[in-house]
What we know:
By secondary structure, the chain is an alpha/beta fold. It folds into three domains: 9-171, no CATH class; 191-252 and 354-464, D-Maltodextrin-Binding Protein, domain 2 (3-Layer(aba) Sandwich), CATH 3.40.190.10; 257-349, Periplasmic binding protein-like II (D-Maltodextrin-Binding Protein, domain 2), CATH 3.40.190. Helices cover 41% and strands 20% of the residues. It contains 19 helices and 18 strands. It has a five-stranded mixed sheet with strand order 10-9-11-18-12, with helices on both faces. It has a five-stranded mixed sheet with strand order 15-14-16-13-17, with helices on both faces. A hairpin with a 2-residue loop joins strand 3 and strand 4. Helix 6 crosses helix 14 and helix 15 (390-401) crosses helix 16. It is globular, with a radius of gyration of 23 Å. The model is unreliable at 128-143 and 145-170 (pLDDT under 50).
Amino acid sequence: MKKVTLQNYMTDKxxxxxxxxxxxxxxxxxxxASIRVFISMGLLEExxxxxxKKGRIPYLEKVIKCxxxxxxxxxxxxxxxxxxxxxxxxxxxxxxETSGGKIPLRFSKSxxxxxxxxxxxxxxxxxxxxxxxxxxxxVRPIIIDSVGRILMSQIFLAxxxxxFVHPSVHAADKIRISMTGFAGQFMTFxxxxxxxFLTEEGIEAEIIRISAAAGRAALSGGEVDYSTGIxxxxxxxxxxxxxxxxxxxxxxxxxxxxxARPEIKSVQALKGKTVAVLIFGGVAHFAARAVxxxxxxxxxxDLKYLAVGPPDARFAALSQGLVDAAVLGPPLDFEARKQxxxxxxxxxxxxxxxxxxxxxxxxxxxxxxxxxKRVIRAGIKANRYIRANRDxxxxxxxxxxxxxxxxxxxxxxxxxxxxxxxxxxxxxxxRLVIEETKKTVKSSRxxxxxxxxxxxxxxxxxxxxGSK
Length: 468
């Protein structure tokens, strides 16, 4: 079955039923709940919803009357349709009462964060003002209790606070930013969104988590506007002929650590062992190779690499004994050390190369340089906040990554030193990672720096903001 994209979702066979379901919901209220769409399509029963809310069903997918691929397809089409209707996505929390207090309800067997958010998401119809002025309502999380009531003490539409905008001011540009994982070194744009730096620049962003390979395809196909991954997404994509480029660096040095099982005490002891990385040719793969080479091993002959996936999957593989070592960043390196694993080396002590930044399509660079500059400016503001405001950033990490204060503090202290937007470090590091990535993926393709990156907009933004 063809993949659902922004370009083809209206031709999908489920689209008419989703449109009808959304229309019916909006006739009676100003928001659409994803699970109500499933009910309207005959794929969920009200009785099952009631039993789920009362804890009689462990997770909602157990009673959905379709396979998970179809459910995922419906959720994707719903998101695209809601976007076209200019409905605002809202974080939603479903909870039930227990003797020990209120606990979250689960939608999926895996409990994976992006799946849970897809099912729980509500799409809110924004308010309109009278006269010539436009208005928006700020959207807060919807809290729904075990009997299905919206708790008005947790008001999800702050309708008493209406912001009137002069007619000459344009509406915020809506963009999608993809990330390969949620970790301390990726917080620039989530924090920019939380602290309002994107809004200050006239940007309304949706931040999504997808793999590096999917990110490359989504960038070139226009399904997302920006990605934060430099290695696997940008460099790997450019070497494969994908028309994308790096336009900014926010973490110009890696915060990755080579973490090994308790019995392995040194990098040299990894000879003949297996190391877990994200993908072949990605940043973690590159970091592992560079570190072991620095300590005298041949990265080609002396080690084996296993492409396991994002940091949590690599940590699980290490914990379960499936690999001998893994490349991890905060907070998982901190957690691993607490559990008795050994941190053999830290990548930023060995070399400098950009880990995260901003990547976009060549078409976007040509067509919307002003938008790119505003996104870059928001990122610079976020980096400055991260470096200057420890007391504000640690609570953000606690909320965003669901960490306790001890782990959030260790995460902040582990990553803050590498947050920067120094263009000279960025350019030097990019040249290094281009060459190393070519070796890693065994590419003979000749590429110049300008084929990979265009830092001219970053330079302009830095001049305007008084950066060196």
